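Milestone M4 deliverable, item 7.
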Amino acid sequence: MVPLRPAPPPARPPAPPPRPPVVVRPAAPPKPVEVKPPAPPPPPPKPAAAEERAPMPTALAKRKVVVKRKK
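Output delivered:
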């Protein structure tokens, strides 16, 4: 009988290509912070005249809307 030769060692996979060097970008300069002037205080609410306030409830109470359903 012919002696069998030992199996050749498994071939190593080819080495991966070298990675490109990592380029580190310089940090962006900080953005200037806009300083807003303080908002002026809201004007005080004007008292409504009695003539303007009185007719509203009565006008709304008298206005009735009737919705008719289709048969």
